[in-house]
Amino acid sequence: HLAMKEDEPQQVFHLAALTHLASAQADPTTAHDTNIRGTHNVFSAMSQHSVGVLASTCHVYGVPQGLPITEEHPVAPTGVYASTKAQAEEAARHAASTVVIARGFHHTGPGQSADYALPGWAQQLAAGQSPIHVGDLSLKRDYTDVRDICRGYRRLARDGKHHGVYNLCSGQGTTLQDLLTGLNHGQTPAVQVDEDRLRQGDVPEFRGDPSKANALGWIPQVPQQQMLSDLRRSFDRQA
């Protein structure tokens, strides 16, 4: 608190969280302390002259009632991670009057942990593993390059309405099969479906509406294939 008060940053971006779904589910106490209490601590320490951006998540919407998902969609989180992030949004609003909520949909890029689907596949491909261990590849997800998501955070800090909520997403749904093929330079690799990678209740398609953020001037710039190629190259260099 003291450091924040002394420095008085003009903009505060709060991205810290326990984000891995399985880890949050396995340790709800840590998820609660990190995602909710941590959010309150950051924004309650922020100067009233600062603008804060909370990196929330599309998971707060729960099972889609319709597609694409707009910011007016009911918040109905399922699971520990989604629930703590929904509560983090409330904590942020109560802690400061100048916070903007960014609900990022799926995103990836170089540096993401191989614990997540796309970098996990990229790591297997770079190592020459065959078959690639996967879950349900028929699912459609709305992926955006992490660099575009970061540009979105900056845009919201500058132009977002205080206490406003904005989806950061591409608005396009792509099957996980097509994303895997893109990671493999357009070739479909041999795969093995692992039971432990299948999640009960996974929805067939999860896709957002970025119109509100688009209206502020935020438009994703990194093409999907570049996102996949850059992610793959980051693991090729490590192999």
Report how far the terminal alpha carbons are from each other.
Answer: 42 Å
| Number of helices in the DSSP assignment | 9
Structural class by helix and strand composition = alpha/beta
Tell me the radius of gyration: 18 Å
Question: How helical, in percent, are the residues?
Answer: 40-55%
SSE run:
HEHHEHEEHEEEHEEHEEHH
The tally of beta strands, per DSSP, is 11
Tell the overall outline: globular
Largest sheet geometry? 4 strands, parallel
Poorly predicted sequence stretches spanning 5 or more consecutive residues: none
Strand portion: 15-25%
Mean pLDDT score, rounded? 96
The largest beta-sheet arranges its strands as 1-2-3-8
Task: Set out the fold topology.
Elements: H1 2-7, E1 11-14, H2 21-26, H3 28-45, E2 51-57, H4 80-95, E3 99-104, E4 107-108, H5 117-126, E5 132-134, E6 140-141, E7 144-145, H6 146-159, E8 165-168, E9 174-175, H7 176-183, E10 191-193, E11 205-206, H8 211-215, H9 224-236
Would you kindly provide a written description of the structure presented here, covering whatever features stand out?
The chain is 40% helix and 15% strand. The chain has nine helices and eleven strands. Helix 3 packs parallel to helix 4. Helix 4 links the parallel strand 2 and strand 3. 38% of the residues are buried. The strands form four sheets. It has a four-stranded parallel beta sheet, sandwiched between helices.
